[in-house]
Design a protein that fits this description.
Blueprint (H helix, E strand, L loop, with lengths): L1 H17 L10 E8 L2 E7 L11 E3 L6 H9 L4 E5 L11 E6 L2 E9 L2 H18 L6 E2 L3 E7 L2 E6 L16 H12 L12 E4 L8 E3 L5 E3 L6 E5 L2 H11 L5 H10 L1 H5 L6 H22 L7 H4 L1 H4 L7
Parallel strand pairs: 7-12
Antiparallel strand pairs: 1-2, 1-3, 2-4, 4-5, 5-6, 6-9, 8-9, 10-13, 11-12
Helix pairs in contact: 5-6, 6-8
Length: 316
């Protein structure tokens, strides 16, 4: 119940941003929260059969909503479904599904805070950079539109051809994942150089941000944390660590990450000693990211990280 209340409170804020009240005094429209207000996941245009779900959610129906904006810039009538996001995430932002007459046209990210605006703007830059690279294994989304509306950063991305009904529900084959990680590590933005032994990494290559494509390539989205100049293997460690977090508490997952580092990084030609150093470096970098975000989803580093790395300072 508490999670639902938090989500609905944040949802009210989001819907007021995306569907502001009409200046002409027009009556508000009505949307439906699915599957139910007690389990809020999506906000969709109201249909006749939604009356069985309870009262609808009033929204502004003026001439300046996110739907009218997308319709104007894309040149066709657009309708959106709003994902009801967790309210307590450091990089939270509204995520929309955008539909035209032919069906799903794309996904829209809304930068509604200084941090979210920077992340959305940066992801647009990364994806445009990747569009100019001859990628053979990795398939990122295309930027369909990027602009500013009512002080919000708006980024619309092409939908990737996911075959599984649930992203992250099927394990990506290890050879495909390793090939994708190597290809990402070899990416160099124009004009940027890295030292020998350093690479590029996706930054959030978790099971829920990837899927195996029907053509044998890897579909990858959420590029807002992409970075260069890190030790080779960060993506492999991040993927393992976040899979481990589904089954064990953060301190145990961190220990497992260090213990498995040599095996995880062996496919990338990283020796045992350097693999352990890379794992410690990765965990410290992740904790630092959380500190900059002002959010500690794993708890205080003094609990999940320090007991593991304090006696390993010689590795850094």
């Amino acid at each position: 119940m508490r999670d639902a209340a938090d989500r609905l409170h944040y949802l009210d804020e989001v819907m007021n941003l995306l569907f502001p009240p009409s200046r002409s005094g027009a009556r508000p429209g009505v949307r439906s929260v699915l599957p139910h207000r007690l389990v809020p996941r999506r906000v969709v245009p109201r249909a006749w059969w939604h009356t069985a779900l309870g009262r609808g959610l009033p929204v502004g129906r003026g001439t300046d909503t996110i739907e009218t904006h997308l319709s104007d810039v894309l040149g066709r009538r657009m309708r959106v479904v709003v994902h009801v996001r967790p309210a307590r995430r450091a990089n939270r932002k509204p995520i929309l599904e955008a539909y035209d007459e032919s069906g799903l046209a794309g996904f829209v990210k809304i930068g509604d805070s200084p941090r979210a605006r920077r992340l959305v703007r940066y992801e647009s830059e990364v994806l445009r950079m990747l569009a100019g690279r001859p990628l053979k294994v990795v398939v990122p989304p295309d930027v369909l539109y990027h602009g500013e509306w009512r002080g919000l950063e708006v980024l619309m991305l092409s939908p990737l051809p996911v075959t599984s009904r649930r992203v992250g529900s099927r394990r990506v084959p290890a050879p495909l994942l390793a090939s994708a990680m190597r290809e990402i590590a070899a990416v160099r933005p124009h004009g940027e150089e890295t030292d020998s032994g350093e690479a590029a990494w996706h930054g959030d290559l978790t099971p829920w941000n990837i899927a195996a494509g029907a053509d044998g390539r890897l579909l990858v989205w959420d590029w807002e944390r992409f970075a260069v100049g890190v030790p080779l293997g960060f993506d492999a460690l991040h993927h393992f660590f976040h899979r481990a977090l589904r089954r064990m508490p953060p301190p145990v997952a961190a220990r497992a990450c260090l213990a498995q580092a040599s095996g995880l990084l062996e496919p990338f030609g990283v020796d045992v000693a350097r693999a352990r150093r890379t794992a410690v470096h990765y965990l410290v970098a992740l904790a630092e990211r959380h500190r900059r975000d002002g959010h500690e989803p794993l708890g205080p580093p003094a609990v999940w990280l320090n007991p593991l790395v304090d006696h390993l300072e010689c590795l850094l």
